[in-house]
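Budget justification, computational time. The allocation requested in the original proposal was used primarily to generate structure tokens for proteins on the priority list. As evidence of use, we reproduce two of the resulting records. The first is shown immediately below.
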Amino acid sequence: MKAVGIVAEYNPFHLGHAWHIAETRRQLGEDVPAVCVMSGDWVQRGECALTDKWTRAKLALRGGADLVLELPVSWSVSSAEGFARGALALLEAAGVVDILSFGSECGDADLLERAAAGLDSPGCQAKLRRLMGEGLPFPAARQAALQSCWGPGAEVLSSPNNNLGVEYIRALNALRSGIRPMTVPRKGEGHDGAPGEEMGGPILSASTIRSRVRQGRWEEAAGALPAGAAEILRRAGIADMRRVERAVLARLRRMDAEDFAALPDSGAGEGLPARLVRAAGQAASLEEFYSLAKSKRYTHARIRRLAVWAFLGISGADRPDAPRYLRVLGMNSRGMALLREMKKTAALPVLTKPAHVKELGEEARRQFALSCRATDLYGLCFDRIKPGGLDYTTGPVIV
């Protein structure tokens, strides 16, 4: 084989992520290179990452990754389907990956492949459209549609990592990719579970670790992180949405229904833009905005993403069918060897220096400029505000 691909947010990289990489290599071979596509400074749940993308790439490299590529913001802040399609398009374009490894609750790639095929069947898609037209929220409509076509096996979609794994497989199928999926059973704390013990310490969820770090409970967080990671995070600085809350609310209050309708996944034909206008006018905090806009049909995660898109100035037109370049955030010696191979195999331009941007085509330059704006606004989320223009002055991390 050539290399294994991994899609992650590493927000932050913890012992569970280290276990996933180690177990993947145990099954595939200790020398297999690992190419990770990682979200940049804004993440899928609709908030800022705990710390900046270069620091998170460094922690991933220290934890077993060999090459880290950035998932641009138009896909990193997206539904599971959009997130998966953007990330898998990058792994496919790299031309050096032949296996995709991901964690799941079920640990059964065949089961997830059958679920993906069921979701993509014409009957299931028609049922999904009918259920959504009746006002059912997308996650519930999706599982109900699959159950009507496939039966009790649809329960696999009720677990978040299974669900994301299904979307990875659907993305591979849509790309007609030769990359084959494998899944590693997820270890440790689930969203409502108890910590596991692997890799020399408790495997806590990333959300638990983020909460402890932002509360200043560093000793508790450090035990769930690889050695030295807590100090690296502390030195880099911790980002928090509360530091830009008024700026986000100011942006939301300046928007009208037409502005909201232009956002990705805005629900323009579902009455959501008008609901967002009302919520923005009444809310005195972001949490209140989310609560006022949320309904049975519009999930909390979707509303959070809409708020971030509004703040970053991202419209539906800013998310084309696929990313237009491969941006390297970090590498080690094995990653450098992969990059040399990618010069012969990559289907997209590979950016290893900010200066390479001027060699991109017009659409790719627009995409890069959007990521730069997202990075600049992310810098406001720190106690000590970061300067703008970092995307044009910061090269890949090398470990």
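The second record produced under the same allocation is shown here.
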Amino acid sequence: MRRCFLFFLSVCMLFSCCFLLCGCEKKSLGADTSEASSYTWQKKCYEPQADGATVIGSEPFLLDISHTDQGYMMARYTGTADKVNLQITGPDGTNYKYFMEPAEQYIPFTFSGGDGSYVIAAYENIGGDQYVSLFFEVVDITLKDEFLPFLYPNQYVFFTKDSQAVKEAEKLCTADKKDIDLLSDVYNYVISSISYDDEKARTVQLGYLPDIDETLETKKGICFDYAALMAAMLRSQGIPCKMAIGYSNEIKHAWIDVYIEGNGWIDRAIEFNGEEWKLMDPTFASNNEDEETVKDYIGDGENYTLQYNY
């Protein structure tokens, strides 16, 4: 597990190279019931669409923004460069940097910063570390529901209704279970099914993207694979889930925030603490009126700094 910790730090250093660090915010931990709206859990696998109703840009880079009210856009690059750097800066000032390779299919990217103006820019690689501007646009976003960006797939938490991981989640999500039960079941399924891949940790390359079905097939993965798999399985069953990257004091940290009906957002419901993945004690589900009990499990969050939500 020590190697897992060292690998996790190295992956997060890669993230730091890929993402411009700005707009960091403090996250208080616990059940956040102060939100203006609430989400009623319904079993549903949300699938993004690129139906061409509203498309901006020009070949080789196109953005389908037909469904921004659903919390996502679809991007496609069909040029000859090895890669394109897509940057999305939200209303909170956080700048996300993604890398795309030439492909015919569209890739979903979500608006995790909520309502507001997003600056979207794309840069085409012309060799080495050199890029030229390919696209620049400001898009105003008004979400139909604030939870939607954390229900749809995106480049890091990618799934479809045909993904094997989604089928496995469906087996766990029986009619007699509550969302908190599914959270526990998904966690236990992943940690019992997947072994840590030391070789992959030693050889992982910059720009690595998880493949949740490959993780299931090989039954091996690195910390990023664990997080993406758990997040995808929960989202595919209609449970809003954030895969978060940040710091605990000065150490890189990863956690998964989950929205539980009747409790609100439960921050760090699942976390990688540098040694292992842990599930917060699920007894908080029976303590809706006792916020202090919840805080006993997860602390006050003073030492935590959030960088990115995926």
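A brief technical remark on that second record: The first strand starts at residue 25 and ends at 26.
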